[in-house]
């Protein structure tokens, strides 16, 4: 894989029963890109996600990922937990925060992967564990500041506006030093203002945390606004790939997707 790519999907296929949910799909994401994956309902977007993070094991194909140190690994067959350690994290459509914990604590819950000391040491609160916890707390506070939530650090997550919960979900991904974040319909359930803020936030994450973003999203304004390139799929196959302008003017995409949705 050439040096400029972070993620390269090659001839990916997976079928459920007789149905080919992803059918010989290939695309690649360049370093620093915000990349969009779009398609009508049932096109196979979530299945592509699940094949990248190895929640599903693809029937065929490869998923190459460039780690922080520049080396390339094929993710197929790896454990989801190990994939997070390699620097690839995802969010879920439904935000799942622990209601009884503060926003800060919710970020720390997501950071267990960062702990270098073992569970027993943590339980005994040995010096090293206490130090590590302090380091994580500082990191979490910095992320909350970046998310402009510093005044809410100790507030419970219960009762927070949906936009705040979504930010925390994003913040949790940042706790694990990602080189790539996959966002599953981040604008779902957000109002116009929250969606505009989200667009700015995703761009800021790219700048500040130097990570790539792969976005699956139905909100065309968000996709067209922030993506450098987009891949449109239908029936698990690639329809077109290109800049937002190219995708918007592509006839096949218009017929399959934009025509129906807009
Ligand atoms: N675990 C599964 N078992 C059987 N069929 C599945 C499974 N997961 C997905 N499918 C089927 O694969 C196809 C692609 O589904 P997928 O959820 O990936 O589409 P999508 O583009 O994410 O749709 P949406 O935009 O509605 O979320 C659909 O026909 C779906 O019913």
TrEMBL record:
**Quick check: keyword Mitochondrion in the entry?**
no
UniProt protein name: Amino acid/amide ABC transporter ATP-binding protein 1, HAAT family (TC 3.A.1.4.-)
GO CC terms, sorted: plasma membrane
A GO molecular function for this record? ATP binding
The organism of origin for this protein:
Maledivibacter halophilus
Which CDD domains does this one have? ABC_Mj1267_LivG_branched
**Does the record carry Transport as a key word?**
yes
Domain ABC transporter positions: 7-260
Q: Which SMART domains match?
A: AAA (SM00382)
Cite the InterPro entries for this sequence: AAA+_ATPase, ABC_AA/LPS_Transport, ABC_transporter-like_ATP-bd, BCA_ABC_TP_C, P-loop_NTPase
Q: Could you list this entry's UniProt keywords, alphabetically sorted.
A: ATP-binding, Nucleotide-binding, Transport
* One Pfam family of this chain: ABC_tran
